Amino acid sequence: MKKHTQSPYESSKVSYKPSGIEWLGEIPQSWKNVSIRSCFTESNQRCNTDSYPLLSVTIANGIIYQDDIENKKDISNDDKSNYKIVPLNAVAYNKMRMWQGAVGVNVLTTGIVSPAYIVAIPNEKILPNFVSYLFKSKIMIGEFDKNSYGLCLDMNNLRYDDFRNIKIPLPPLQEQKEIAEFLDSKCEKIQNYIDKKQRLITLLQEKKQALINQAVTKGLNPNIESKNSGIEYLGEIPQHWEVRRVATLGKFFKGSNISKNDLQDSGVSVVLYGDIYTKYEIKTKQFQSKIAENFAKDKTQILCGDLLFSGSGETKEDIGKCICYLGNEKAYVGGDVIVLRQMGQDSLFLSYVLNSDYIKYQKAVISKGEIIIHIYASNLRDLKIPLPPLHEQKEIAEFLDSKVAQIDSVIEKTKKQIELIKEYKNTLINEAVCGRVACSRDFSPTAQNDKRAGLR
Question: Class of 32-170 per CATH?
Fold first, then answer.
C-alpha cells in the first residue's frame, strides 16, 4: 500500500496575508508574490543538428511529448536553424495557443521546438515539478489568456515580454516540493480512476456493438434453423431471411448545397454530413441545426423514415455512417448527405443493420488500399444486407432500442463521473498552487473527500 502523501497544510494551521494580486486573493504568510521574470530566463539557443527529437505540448493537460514519436511528424528535411533547444526541466509554450494552456515542462530529454514556441529556463527559486502544476492550473491559464493579443482568437500571441510580467504565487522551495508531491499522489489516483472508467465505457460500447451485430445478422431466436447466406464474411443467417442489395430497398438521392455558413439560430431543421457522425447515433426525431425558411425553398427535403448517410468524413469510420430520420417536422439535408428513401421496410432496423460491423467490413473492402474521402450512392447501392420479414424487423428494432438505451444510460452516467472527477482535479490543483488547500474544506486531502470525488 502506498504511503499517504501529506499536504503541506494538513498538519498545522496556516495564517494568510493579502497577495496584492486581485485574482489571487490571500496567500500563506510564508509565500511571496513575484513576477515570472524573477524565476525564469528566456532561452533562444538555436538548433544546429539533427540529433534532437522534436517536442510539442498538448493543450489538454500541458504535457510535453516527443512529436516525432506520437504524431510521426517528419521534419528531417526542414530547415531547423530557427528551431529552439529545450533543455530538461525548461518550460516551453506555444505563443499562439497559450490562451488554451499550451505550456509544459520538459521532463523527457533535451529536444527542440518550432519557432512558434517560447523557451524559458527556471532558476533556483522555483522547482519544475511545482511549475508544471502552477502553469497548467485554470487560474494561471486565465492569466495567460488575458495577456494574449492578436487580430483573431486563433492567432492570439503571448509575447515573452508580457509572459514574464505576469504575477505568480511563490511558496518556499520545501513547500513547492511538498505541494508537487501531494498533487502527484492525488493526480495519479485520479488518473487511475479515469482510466478505469474509460475502460468501462470501451467495454460497454463493445457490448452494444456486439448486441447490434448479433441481432441484425442472427435474429432474436437462438434456436431457429439457419442457412448459409452465401457471403463468407456474413456466415449463416436464419432460414427464412433473405440477402438483399441495398439498391433494391428504395431510391437514392443527394442533399443540396448547404454549408455551415448558411446556418441560422432559428428556422427550419437541417442536417449536414458532419452532423451525422458527430451529433447523432442510429436515429433522431429532430436536428439541432437550422437554416432560414426562405433559403430552404429549393433545397432537398427529407421525410420521416428516410435513411441518411455521410458522404464525406475525416476517417473511414465516419464515411457512410447512417442514421434514420423519425421526426415529423420539415427538415432538409446538406451537400455530401446521401439519402435512401426506402419502401416497405422498417427504417430503424435498416439503420441498425447499416451500422453493424458486417456493413463496416463491406465498406472497408470497397475502400481497400485507398484513403477514403468520399463514398457515393453507387457504393452504398451494392452493399448486401440480411433482411428478415417486416414484423421481425420491427421486433429486432424494438429490442435493440431498449437494450441500447440501457447501455447508453450507463455510458452517459460514466462520462459524467469522469467530467466530475476532472473538475475535482482542476479545483484541487488551483487550490494547492494558490495555497488554499487547508482553508477549503471541500478539497482538503481526507479520506472523506476522496470518497466524495469517487476515488475510494
Answer: alpha beta
